[in-house]
Amino acid sequence: MDLKLKYGWPFPKNMSDPPPLSFRLLSGLVVPMVGTFSKIVLTWCNNVNEHNVDRLRELVGERPPGTPLVTVSNHYSCIDDPALWGVLRWRYLWNARVMRWSPAAHDIAFTRRIYNCFFSYGKCVPIIRGLGVYQQAMDFMIERLKEGAWVHIFPEGKVNMVQTRMRLKWGVGRLIYDCPITPVVLLFYHIGMDSVLPNKAPYIPRVGNTVTVVVGEPLDFREMVKEMREQGEGDERARKRITDVIEEEMGKLRDKAEELHTKVKQKL
Fold first, then answer.
1. Burial readout 195-225 (b: 16 or more C-beta within 10 A, e: otherwise)
2. Quick count: other Cβ atoms within 10 Å of Cβ 50?
3. Which of 47, 77, 154, 224 is the 20 to 30 A CA-CA neighbour of 214?
4. What is the enclosing helix (H) or strand (E) of 90?
């Protein structure tokens, strides 16, 4: 396994809020382009069975300034991000400052120089699987959260092609525990994205499928984090406790999503 970035770290050293003008200009081109693709693929070419999605829209675009947001979902298809963001309003999809930061596998999304540029301007952060929770990508995303940004993460750590219930990785726990301002955390579960883009060749988006998206209610970890810090909870133990809560809630959302998806499919 190659544990190095082929083209080096893709972001400017000074990524304070606001980022450098050059990054803002190029990101301002890539993000709307990808957002348009997402809207077309998800909501124009396929059918979305939405449940509580307005909660996601509200937190993405209308949360108080300076409030960090972490969204968490399952990962069933390579097109989950960005296509799932097609449920958002146009004014968010075309706003590079509003849209999410998200980790992306360095050995898939950052293997060529043009990919390196495209994905970084699209606000994807190269994560090196196997390097653990203390790596540059995680530090970078915590810095973005400190600025009140939105970070989305797939804590399964890979595309779950067999759709089994997997133990979630603790990186999500670190994002929440190590951020000085405890983020709002929103979970959602989706079913059907692997029909929009099957996990086998030819990798061409399909049309006419049904995708179910079930969004939960925001999770508030402030008291839990405060208590663990006051009690001197070890970092590893703290990350695990937070991730365990998320894993349990994701299981509940999965059950609900599967039930709702089955019902809508039976009506078709």
1. ebbbeeeeeebeeebbbbbbbbebbebeebb
2. 15
3. 224
4. helix 90-93
Domains in the chain: boundaries: 21-267
Output the CA–CA distances (angstroms, integers) from residue 52 to 41, 56, 177, 213, 259, in the order listed.
21, 8, 26, 8, 15
**Using CA atoms, how far apart are residues 131 and 105, in angstroms rounded to an integer?**
12
Judge whether residue 108 has pLDDT over 80: yes
pLDDT tens per residue, range 129-168: 989 999 999 999 999 999 999 999 999 999 999 899 999 9
Q: And the tokens for 228? A: 């663990």
pLDDT band with cut points at 50, 70 and 90 for residue 198: very high
Q: Could you tell me which CATH class the domain 21-267 is placed in?
A: alpha beta
For 41, which DSSP code?
I
Q: Which among 77, 1, 76, 87 is positioned nearest to 38, based on CA atoms?
A: 87
- What pTM was estimated for this model as a whole? 0.96
